[in-house]
Amino acid sequence: MRLLPFLLGAALALSPLNELNAQKHNCRIQGHVVDDDGEPLFGANVLIKELRIGATTNIEGFFVINNLRPGTYTLEISYVGYEKVIDTVAVGPQKMTGEARVCCKRQTFNIGGIEVTAERDLMPDDVETKTTITADEIEHYQ
Predict the structure, then answer these.
(1) Which of these, 83, 102, 106, 108, is most buried using a 10 Å CB contact count?
(2) How far apart are the C-alpha atoms of 94 and 75, rounded to whole Å?
(3) How far apart are CA 53 and CA 75, in angstroms?
């Protein structure tokens, strides 16, 4: 029975610490990812390298990563067919929301030559058309 008041007292004493800890994790980073023409990139990956967490952009190219501590973070933005972009965003007590607008450039790949080979087994070399018409069919068309 003596344990209950102790646990209740400990919980009340630690609750301000939990509130302070929760306040430390209320920063966020949000932004847009677009291509060279300003069109949004749907499904682009946005990764915070230090934390190894991230988000994917929606159909409008928008992303948000919540519950961050104040600090400076390195964002790595990648999208298939586009160059990877590295950006730095800072969030803190004075700036709870970090903003990032990222423009990804198209990436081209130079590959070696391509050799195409085929065989001609699908079509016969001798094409023949044969139609048989009976006398009744000829009379029917006249």
Answers:
(1) 102
(2) 20
(3) 10
